[in-house]
Amino acid sequence: GNLMKELLPFSEHPSGPLTALCTDIFTKTLLAGSKEGHIIRWNIASFLEDSRNKKNQIKEEVCWRAHATEVVELFIEEEKNVVVTASIDGSVRLWHAMTGYYFGYFGQAREFELSDTSRLILPPDVNDFPAIIKEESKHMEKKKVTYPLMLDRDK
Question: What is the pTM of this model?
């Protein structure tokens, strides 16, 4: 988990140790679950084709908070385009693979409605909406800025 911690996500959430990884059938998409309950989806297709070419980078596409606690397992079901996540809190949840929209949890009374991604709902213990990363975004870099304290008597 600590090895990929160095890949800073584009989202405002700090990167933490990764606890679960999976790829799609064609190994074009990498999904990772974190200790803080986030799911991050990367496009790794161009990087795997030629990892020595610096233009071919791992591109983060979407990040969302799936659980309030550590993600212990996840997998992508490509036919239905969903991601299934499990956490140490005992919940197993279903998400839209491309957008991170929440469909529900296993054991709920209502049926999963997988075709409607326009109705954005969140689980009761999560209040962060998915962050879809645009292609032209740059990594968030921590900049060193010093602001000396100065007393301005005129103000």
Answer: 0.71
